[in-house]
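Lab meeting, item 3. Inverse folding demo.
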C-alpha cells in the first residue's frame, strides 16, 4: 500500500469497505450471476468475456474475492471497481463508501463475524466437494472399461492413437449428462440443466494422496467413427466446450499409461511408491497419447515410462505467484491482458512427481497462446526442479499440436 492510500485508509477502514460490499453484490449491478456449488459465476463485468463469457467470472466461496478466466485478473471488491470504472485505488474506496477513522471496536466485531462466516462457508464448501466427489466416484465405478467402446474408437480411429495394453485412467459412459445453465422446477428450486445426454470418454483425476478426486469428460458424437461433440448454447448460439472437468483437479493427474508392470502397483494408496524412471506430462489426454504413440511407432523402449495428463495448462504449471501483462494481447478496454507468470507459488500444491522419476518431460502444445504456454512450462519446470531430476520441455510445432504432428507424419 502506498503512502497516499495509507494516509487515507487504514487496514481497518479497508476491512470495513470489503465487508460492507460483497463482490457478488457489486458485480451483480453490471452482470447476472448464478450459483454454481459454493461459488457464483457469470459473464465478466470487466472484460465482457469471450469464448467462456457465460461462466468466465467467478466469485470465490469466501464471497470476498473474484477471478476471471478470460482477462486473467482478480482480487477483492476494491480491485473490481478499479477495473470496471478504470479509477484509482483511492477513488474505488470512496465509490464503495469508504470512510476514514473506523471505530476499532466495530472493526474487531466485523473481523470476528467475518471469521465465523469464513469457517461456516469453508465447512459447507468442503461438504459439497465431498458429496460431488462421491457422486463422481460412483459414476466412475459404474462406467465401462475403455476397450471395445466408442471412446476407444475415437482415440484409435479419429485421433490415430495406439492404446496401451491397460488404460487404468480411462473409461466410457454411453449416456453421460452434459450440464449447462440452470432450470427451475415446479417448486421454484434451481438446479443444473441437462442440455444433452450421449456417449462420453471419462478419465479419473488421482490426487496426490492417491485418492480419486474427480472426472474429465470428453463428449462424443454417435458418428462412425466417433468425433468430439459440437454443441451450441440454445440462448446465444456460442459453441460449447466438448470437454468438461468436475470435482477436484488441482494437483491431480490422469494416468494414461503405465508400461512397467511394477509401476504404480499401489497407485491407489501410495502414489509415492511409483517406480517409473521417466514421466511424461501433457495438458490433455490426446496430447499425451500422441507422444506415447510416436514412441511406440519408433520402437523406443518405454517399459519404465509413465504418461500423465494434467487436464489443463494451469494444472500442469501449478499455481502462479503473480500475473504479468501480456506483451501483445489486449482486453476489450484496451488494457494489456494479464496472464499467470512463470514463477510458481510454492505455498500452494501442484502435481506430486514420484521420487523414482529421474527424467521429466513436459509437453507444450503450439496451438495455444505462446506466452501463456511458455510461462506455464517454465513455471512447471521451476516447481518440479529437484536434485537428480532432469527436466525437458518439448513443444509442438507453432500453430499446431502433437496430435496434428502425429497424424501429419511429423
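The presenter then showed the designed sequence:
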Amino acid at each position: 500500500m502506498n503512502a497516499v492510500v495509507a494516509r487515507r485508509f487504514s487496514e481497518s477502514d479497508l476491512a470495513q469497505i470489503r465487508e460492507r460490499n460483497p463482490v457478488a453484490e457489486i458485480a451483480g449491478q453490471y452482470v447476472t450471476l448464478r450459483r454454481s456449488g459454493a461459488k457464483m459465476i457469470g459473464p465478466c463485468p470487466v472484460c465482457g468475456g469471450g469464448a467462456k463469457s457465460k461462466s468466465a467470472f467467478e466469485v470465490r466461496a469466501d464471497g470476498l474475492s473474484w477471478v476471471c478466466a478470460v482477462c486473467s485478473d482478480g482480487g477483492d471488491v476494491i480491485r473490481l471497481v478499479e477495473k470496471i470504472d478504470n479509477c484509482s485505488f483511492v477513488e474505488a474506496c470512496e465509490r464503495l463508501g469508504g470512510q476514514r477513522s473506523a471505530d476499532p471496536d466495530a472493526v474487531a466485531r466485523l473481523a470476528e463475524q467475518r471469521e465465523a462466516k469464513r469457517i461456516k462457508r469453508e465447512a459447507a464448501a468442503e461438504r459439497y466437494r465431498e458429496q460431488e466427489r462421491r457422486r463422481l466416484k460412483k459414476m466412475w465405478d459404474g462406467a465401462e472399461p475403455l476397450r471395445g467402446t466408442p471412446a476407444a474408437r475415437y482415440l484409435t480411429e479419429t485421433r490415430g492413437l495406439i492404446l496401451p495394453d491397460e488404460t487404468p485412467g480411462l473409461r466410457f459412459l454411453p449416456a453421460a449428462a452434459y450440464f449447462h445453465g440452470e432450470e427451475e422446477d415446479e417448486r421454484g428450486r434451481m438446479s443444473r440443466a441437462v442440455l444433452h445426454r450421449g456417449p462420453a470418454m471419462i478419465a479419473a483425476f488421482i490426487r496426490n494422496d492417491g485418492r480419486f478426486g474427480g472426472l474429465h469428460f470428453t463428449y462424443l458424437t454417435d458418428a462412425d467413427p466417433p468425433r468430439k461433440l459440437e454443441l451450441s448454447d440454445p440462448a446465444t448460439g456460442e459453441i460449447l466446450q466438448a470437454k468438461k472437468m468436475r470435482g477436484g483437479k488441482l494437483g491431480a493427474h490422469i494416468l494414461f499409461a503405465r508400461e512397467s508392470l511394477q509401476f504404480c502397483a499401489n497407485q491407489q494408496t501410495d502414489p509415492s511408491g511409483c517406480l517409473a524412471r521417466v514421466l511424461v506430462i501433457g495438458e490433455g489426454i490426446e496430447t499425451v497419447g500422441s507422444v506415447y504413440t510416436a514412441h511406440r511407432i519408433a520402437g523406443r523402449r518405454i517399459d519404465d515410462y509413465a504418461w500423465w495428463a494434467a487436464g489443463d495448462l494451469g494444472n500442469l504449471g501449478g499455481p502462479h505467484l503473480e500475473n504479468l501483462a501480456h506483451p501483445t494481447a489486449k482486453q476489450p478496454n484496451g488494457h494489456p491482458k494479464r496472464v499467470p507468470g512463470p514463477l510458481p507459488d510454492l505455498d500452494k500444491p501442484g502435481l506430486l512427481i514420484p521420487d523414482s522419476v529421474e527424467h521429466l518431460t513436459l509437453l507444450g502444445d503450439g496451438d495455444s497462446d505462446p506466452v501463456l504456454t511458455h510461462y506455464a512450462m517454465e513455471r512447471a519446470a521451476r516447481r518440479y526442479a529437484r536434485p537428480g531430476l532432469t527436466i525437458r520441455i518439448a513443444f509442438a510445432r507453432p500453430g499446431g499440436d502433437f496430435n496434428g504432428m502425429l497424424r501429419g507424419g511429423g
